Amino acid sequence: MKWQQPGPTERLGRIPREQRQQRHRDIVQAAADELVDRGYEGLTMARVASRSRASKETLYSWFGDKDGLLQAVIAAQAEQVTHLLSPLTEQPVPAAAEVRDALHAVGEALLEVFTAEVPITMCRVAATSPSLSRRLREDGHLRALPMVVGYFTRLAQAGVLHLPDPAEAVSVFYGLVFRETLLGRLLGDEQPSAESRSRHVAAGVDAFLRLTEA
């Protein structure tokens, strides 16, 4: 019987789990970098393979096509949202005197994660793709929303803030803290500096607290 070279799936199966996970992260990061550098039209499986030092057959085996690769980028961004927000929204309810600082930390995390280069570029790409747009909503803003709503609900239940409708309060908070900056980024503004973001969030938090005074 003639010997045949193992196919890509067979070869990948022998890669240790940790090495496979790291390879996956490297490919997804390379795809994100290519997307920012070249845009959707310039992003190709060949360029991502070259940048990540992986084979094209590995990319096609793991991700299927370019849109599948972009969905993996969105999923990685969703993990970042969870990583940044979880410690802030799961912390014990702060005392009334500390609530401003707590809200400021949440606002800065939201502004940072949603106005960075990769999320902004993904938003522009998703505007032309219904499937990517749906995935971006599910794993982007909608991933963060229940985390923040849950936190605001606990603040209201503890009497720290007067919030008859925590979900509506989060919508107001979003608008005051980062919606204007997000719109500017989508229209081509540069990423604001850390100091600028902090000032913008501080002003938004102060306005939010004035609106929610009992």
UniProtKB/TrEMBL annotation:
Ranges of residues in domain HTH tetR-type: 21-81
Record-annotated DNA-binding residue ranges: 44-63
Annotated region (Disordered), positions in chain: 1-22
One Pfam family named in its UniProt record: TetR_N
Keyword set includes Ubl conjugation: no
GO molecular function annotation: DNA-binding transcription factor activity; transcription cis-regulatory region binding
Name under which the protein is recorded: Putative TetR family transcriptional regulator
UniProt keyword annotations, A-Z: DNA-binding
PANTHER family assigned: HTH-TYPE TRANSCRIPTIONAL DUAL REGULATOR CECR, HTH-TYPE TRANSCRIPTIONAL REGULATOR RUTR
Organism, scientific name: Gordonia hirsuta DSM 44140 = NBRC 16056
Composition-biased stretches (Basic and acidic residues): 11-22
